[in-house]
């Protein structure tokens, strides 16, 4: 059966983002306590972190491409 998409509250998202800023990987008891604190399952927290790492990598790739394009423009002028 298909899983229902979790809608995170603004407070939950804020807490998850702050935790992600501290560490991009969360496992074991830290994940358990964060999930308990937020009223989520460990799986929901785990998947949120997985998806957030993908978003972070994509943003960094996009930023690097932008910087490379800007430096190419400067060097060709």
Automatic annotation (TrEMBL):
Keywords: Developmental protein, DNA-binding, Homeobox, Nucleus, Repressor, Transcription, Transcription regulation. Pfam families: Homeodomain (PF00046). Residues 1-59 form the Homeobox domain. InterPro entries: EMX-VAX-Noto_Homeobox_TFs, HD, HD_metazoa, Homeobox_CS, Homeodomain-like_sf, HTH_motif. Gene3D superfamilies: Homeodomain-like. Its main location: nucleus. GO terms for molecular function: DNA binding; DNA-binding transcription factor activity, RNA polymerase II-specific. It is found in: Nucleus. The keyword Transmembrane helix does not apply. The keyword DNA damage does not apply. Residues 3-60 bind DNA. One of its GO terms (cellular component) is nucleus. This is Homeobox domain-containing protein. It comes from Nematostella vectensis (Starlet sea anemone). The lineage of its organism: Eukaryota, Metazoa, Cnidaria, Anthozoa, Hexacorallia.
């Amino acid at each position: 059966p298909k899983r229902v998409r979790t809608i995170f509250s603004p407070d939950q998202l804020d807490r998850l983002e702050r935790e992600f800023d501290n560490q991009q990987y969360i496992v074991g008891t830290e994940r358990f306590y964060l999930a308990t604190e937020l009223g989520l399952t460990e799986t929901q927290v785990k998947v949120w972190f997985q998806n957030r790492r993908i978003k972070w990598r994509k943003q960094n790739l996009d930023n690097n491409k932008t910087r490379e394009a800007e430096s190419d423009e400067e060097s060709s002028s």
